Amino acid sequence: MKAPALDRIAIISDIHGNLPALGAVLADIEARGITRIYGLGDLAGKGPSGAEVIDISRRVCVTTVKGNWDAGLADGDADAISIWHRRQLGPERLAYLRDLPETLDFRLSGRSVRLFHASARGINHRVRQYDSRDDHLQMFDNTDFTGHGPLPDIVGYGDVHTAYVKTFAHKCLFNAGSVGNPLDVPLACYAILEGRFDGAEPAPWTVSLARLPYDIEASIRQAEISGMPDLEYYINELRTARYRGLTPKPLKVPG
User: Fold this and answer.
1) ∠ CA 121-123-127 to the nearest 5 degrees?
2) Is 14 exposed, middle or buried (0-12, 13-18, 19+ CB in 10 A)?
3) CB of 206 closer than 8 Å to CB of 195
């Protein structure tokens, strides 16, 4: 007897007001027949179309967790860049960002999955791909930030704009990359979880990363027309996938 098809979940993160990138990713998700989408935060900021991105995300995502940019904009960061982006959003969208949950837990194929923006310690604590094994294992901890439910077997997050998957003994850590501001390769990126959604019994499951081209120059034209601040750095990041257009210092990879 043929087993029923596995459920698929799209995990999108760090859109940062990039409407063409979000459009390309959502078209790819639809083409794959995926209907359940979770967001990992940082909907606005950096790019010019935060208002449109928030409106679309509210419509298509089952749940979105709060990112550090979401919190900073909602809580009234006083720098000129945040003030410009906050003006584009308006009070109702800022209230929406302020009220976003900080974590999401669910079951997949008998395993506990936890999603958050940055780490188990909070939205402003950054964990990178080449940090220590101990740093990565702490992503599976229960903390005051995550709550003290069942310990997760699978953890997904965003924040650092670099996608990867790592496995440990009976655990899997993945970063969904960035839809709108990737800082590894200049391609929009999101993650796909596959398994038995909300299933308590052990069953097959996978996590994969999808990267796809989008119209970067259209995103740049939108940013130029908008008159947004920090424009030069944003353009460089989109074209080079490097933070502020700079090649990062070499990272020491643990042996």
Assistant:
1) 65
2) buried
3) yes
Per-residue pLDDT, averaged over 149-173, amounts to 97
Report pTM.
0.94
Look up residue 75 and give its two tokens: 């809580």
Q: CB-based contacts of 25: which residues, under 8 Å, 6+ apart?
A: 12, 179, 188, 190, 212, 214
The C-alpha atoms of residue 212 and residue 189 are separated, in whole angstroms, by 7
Give Cβ neighbours of residue 242 (< 8 Å, ≥ 6 apart): 183, 236, 248
Q: What is the largest CA-CA distance in the chain?
A: 62
Domains and CATH numbers, the chain: 7-245 (3.60.21.10)
| DSSP code at position 120 | T
pLDDT for 160 beyond 70: yes
For 183-197, write each residue's pLDDT tens digit.
999 999 999 999 999
